[in-house]
Amino acid sequence: MKSTVEQLSPTRVKINVEVPFDELKPNFDRAYRKIAQQVRIPGFRPGKAPARVLESRIGRAPVLDEVVNEVIPAKYMEAVRSGDVRTLGQPDFEVTKLEDREVLEFSAEVDVRPEITLPDLADIEVSVDDVELSEDEVAEQLDELRARFGTLTGVDRPAETGDFVSLDLAATVDGEEVPDASTSGLSYEIGSGQLVDGIDEAIVGATEGETKTFTTKLVAGEHTGKDAEVSVTVNSIKQRELPEADDEFAQLASEFDTIDELKDDLRERLGRMKKMQQGVEARDKVLDALLERVDVPLPEKVLESEISNRKHDAIHPFDHDEDAFKASLEAQGGNAEEWENEIRTEAEKSVRTQLLLDTVADDKNVQVNDAELTERIIYQAQRFGVSPDEYVQRAQQSGQLGAIFADVRRGKALASVVRGTTVVDSSGNAIDLEELFGPEEADADAQADDAAEAVEATEQSADDDTQAGETGVTEDEAATPNK
């Protein structure tokens, strides 16, 4: 086999492949066996008819088709490996020459990772917000904890914001009832914003048994974007009574003996959370600074695929009804053109980020070990509310294990970049990046030993009968930018 690689653009190549028929004997043998199983020829058992008999019965063309369809993907991959081509996405094949018993020639156009020149990363400097913690925030956290232990008590007064009410709802559009927008006995906290626009204003001040009407724009269902006349009846009104914030409550709600100890713990937790937020801000700002300095050519097919996936995800909740989605968009003050532009901008940044971080990972020889991959899988499984085993099985079926591996590697690459930059807060104080991202791993050889086993260990975990423990946000999860 002969192959050449023709550079069409910084992000696309054409691979030309020439395969002499001398190399195709194993492919023809498999094609004859496969076709012989499908064709019944008198005097021969299924699969036993010789090649010359098969050709005399069905012709040479079906055999050639079978061989060509098998050979092209295999020889393409062989050419990619031999040419060290870093392909992205699926190729577009074209058979350019087929001379039976002589030669098969074909071409494959495919997007490739562009060559990216990295700047000096050490001179990047970003500023993040100060970590500020007020006693009001601690009090708010304490109130949220008290609310979990609160009790609901009926009141004999008009409804107020923060009350819990039981509601009956009915809606009409142009005088016709909307079944999907009608319900009874619905529990709702006034002011939570969990129902349609306008309902809070309608029921605040209403008494038990009173019915109010208001107009709102529907954002889901077949009447999306249309004005609906909504009737709401308040069946009952209850207010939440919170337990006293004292030592007795601290013992009930936590492992602490006093309310002061509980407050200290809440204060410490809030501080850690704000530190994590500071780390996320540093990560995002360093990434933005890096993207501004680096020219990353965009592979068009990869970009269009990313845009298509984002549109699919947005329209999926509307049963892929694009008109219903656009109506919902307009009902919320948006428009389709702005949304299209936003989708493209986000997709461009996502693709540029992935290509850039892949280059950084190669430059820094970033490896991923089995523990890091497993930790990401456990975290993702918890996000989607499934077991790690089920998550791995789904990833295997959809061919996403490689993508998970790549995301972890990119996260580690970005974390390594952040560690090498200067990050200060608004007051000019240097941020301890090791505290946020952990120390830089020095033993790359040890990482490399684990990396080869990582994917195998992940795939095997789908068959292992293990229980996953709890996990928090890992370094690579904190470092991986949102897509």
From TrEMBL:
Its main location: cytoplasm. GO terms for biological process: 'de novo' cotranslational protein folding; cell division; protein transport; protein unfolding. It catalyses: [protein]-peptidylproline (omega=180) = [protein]-peptidylproline (omega=0). Residues 162-215 form the PPIase FKBP-type domain. The keyword Cell division applies. The keyword Flavoprotein does not apply. PROSITE patterns: FKBP_PPIASE. One of its GO terms (cellular component) is cytoplasm. One of its GO terms (molecular function) is ribosome binding. InterPro entries: PPIase_dom_sf, PPIase_FKBP_dom, Trig_fac, Trigger_fac_C, Trigger_fac_C_sf, Trigger_fac_ribosome-bd_bac, Trigger_fac_ribosome-bd_sf, Trigger_fact/SurA_dom_sf. Residues 440-453, 461-483 have a biased composition (Acidic residues). It is found in: Cytoplasm. Its EC number is 5.2.1.8. Residues 440-483 are annotated as: Disordered. Keywords: Cell cycle, Cell division, Chaperone, Cytoplasm, Isomerase, Rotamase. Belongs to the FKBP-type PPIase family. Tig subfamily. Involved in protein export. Acts as a chaperone by maintaining the newly synthesized protein in an open conformation. Functions as a peptidyl-prolyl cis-trans isomerase. Consists of 3 domains; the N-terminus binds the ribosome, the middle domain has PPIase activity, while the C-terminus has intrinsic chaperone activity on its own. PANTHER family: TRIGGER FACTOR CHAPERONE AND PEPTIDYL-PROLYL CIS/TRANS ISOMERASE, TRIGGER FACTOR-LIKE PROTEIN TIG, CHLOROPLASTIC. This is Trigger factor. It comes from Prauserella cavernicola. The lineage of its organism: Bacteria, Bacillati, Actinomycetota, Actinomycetes, Pseudonocardiales.
